[in-house]
Specification:
The chain is of the alpha/beta class. About 35% of the residues lie in helices and about 15% in strands. Helix 7 (about 195-205) packs across helix 12 and helix 13 packs parallel to helix 14 (about 355-365).
Length: about 425
């Protein structure tokens, strides 16, 4: 069996990704996972041949069979000639015209690293050459339980390398011995929520004057060629929005440290921190890889309650409903004396280790295409009240038995376009 993957690596072509299965070298999460999964499938003895199509020549693992192409269209045409059985592509990188044009010639697995609009889900549900929609979390998949696309959906969690985690595991500082350090990891752009931790920071320092905030990432995380503002941190308009909260007399507060984009070395820093805050606004967060990395190094994690973090944050009571509560949650966690590390380590290893995740990908290609079986056959679902999930499931069952009900819009469409929009407005 031959599987094609497509990676748009523009702006990241000079990043050394040769050790991608050990840790993220400092690229976007979606790009990192595409590259890591393609590498792992290639390395394993599984009778799966992988072709990775890339936009630019890069510094990749030697085992990978990479082909540089101008665009996705070219990649698919080459795949047809080479007899590729299934083409895996991030939904952001493929349009409906391409899917329709290749309806008779190529079968696709759409990897949903981000939230998929309802209109797009409706299109996918009707296209016979879309074999599966793979979301990166159970909660992301469950958002659309009452949509027809749910019937061809499944989830495979994003993976993390236990190699790096295990290197640190036995030598991590005790939680009580750590300084009052707080860390944010992510791109410095509006949708990644850094504004909220910037806004909360002075309140944290007022309670804990010795607290320090470490910021890993920048506006160049996804594109090293991005143009930044005067502080060299983020795009100018966004930089102007958050910088007043972190400065005094036009100087950066001594408690705030911008570390820039970091690769494997960020784990050393994480091991010295008490509290991790990944994307505190939750927008775009389908999984939250940084939340897993933070917990793997013994940090307590707090962030907003959303689909991604319900899957990845071990302590659900550390998830708040409103960003105005962020400072209070950080302060509460800084007062803790232990982190329950062993339980979190086992939680990560069982659910998110590359060993667990790659088995799911192999099972998908060998047993579950197109719909011979399902990857995750749980007869129950959890967090039944989140995003009205219980009602969605009731509607799903009714729609399956009554064709007239299929015209009833999915509940998530209503939530996104009314309640969520209202919350975003009042949080500004």
């Amino acid at each position: 069996m031959t599987i094609g993957f497509y990676l748009n690596n523009i702006g990241q072509e000079n990043v050394d990704c040769t050790h991608v299965v050990e840790s993220n070298p400092g690229i976007g999460g979606s790009e990192y996972l595409i590259l890591a999964i393609a590498t792992l499938l290639t390395e394993r003895n599984n009778d799966i041949n992988v072709l990775l199509y890339v936009k630019e020549c890069g510094i990749f693992p030697n085992c990978l069979n990479t082909i540089v192409v101008n665009n996705l269209d070219v990649a698919i045409n080459i795949s047809i000639k080479k007899g590729v059985d299934i083409f895996v592509v991030d939904f952001k990188r493929i349009n409906n015209e391409i899917i329709t044009r290749f309806k008779e010639k190529m079968k696709f697995v759409i990897w949903c690293h981000n939230f998929v609009p309802i209109k797009q889900l409706s299109f996918y549900s009707k296209m016979p050459n879309i074999l599966r929609l793979i979301t990166v979390g159970r909660e992301q998949m469950d958002l659309y339980r009452d949509h027809p696309a749910f019937e061809k959906s499944d989830y495979i969690y994003n993976g993390v390398s236990m190699i790096t985690i295990d290197k640190f595991k036995n030598n991590l500082p005790a939680f009580s011995e750590r300084s009052n350090n707080v860390i944010y990891i992510g791109s410095l752009e509006e949708c990644k929520g850094f504004y909220y931790i910037a806004k909360a920071w002075k309140k944290v320092v007022k309670t804990y004057p010795d607290a320090n905030l470490y910021v890993v990432g920048s506006g160049k995380l996804y594109n090293r060629n991005a143009v930044l503002g005067g502080w060299g941190l983020a795009e100018e308009n966004f930089e102007r929005k958050f910088i007043p909260y972190l400065t005094k007399n036009n100087k950066l507060l001594p408690s705030v440290h911008f570390m820039g984009v970091m690769g494997n070395e960020k784990f050393e820093l994480l091991s010295k921190c008490k509290v991790g805050v990944p994307n505190p606004g939750g927008d775009t967060e389908t999984f939250g890889l940084t939340a897993v990395e933070m917990q793997s190094m013994g940090c307590l994690v707090t962030t907003i309650k959303c689909a991604g973090y319900l899957d990845t944050v071990f302590e659900k009571d550390a998830l708040y409903d409103n960003t105005n509560l962020l400072a209070d949650y950080i302060i509460k966690m800084l007062s803790c004396t232990e982190n329950g590390y062993e339980k979190k380590y086992n939680f990560i290893k069982y659910n998110f280790s590359f060993d667990a995740v790659i088995n799911q990908w192999e099972k998908l290609f060998k047993e579950c295409i197109p719909m011979n079986s399902v990857l995750n056959d749980e007869k129950y679902f959890i967090n039944s009240n989140f995003r009205l999930k219980k009602i969605k499931d009731y509607l799903r069952l009714k729609k399956n038995n009554n064709i007239l009900l299929t015209f009833v819009p999915t509940i998530e469409f209503v939530l996104v376009n009314t309640i969520d929009r209202y919350h975003r407005i009042i949080r500004r």
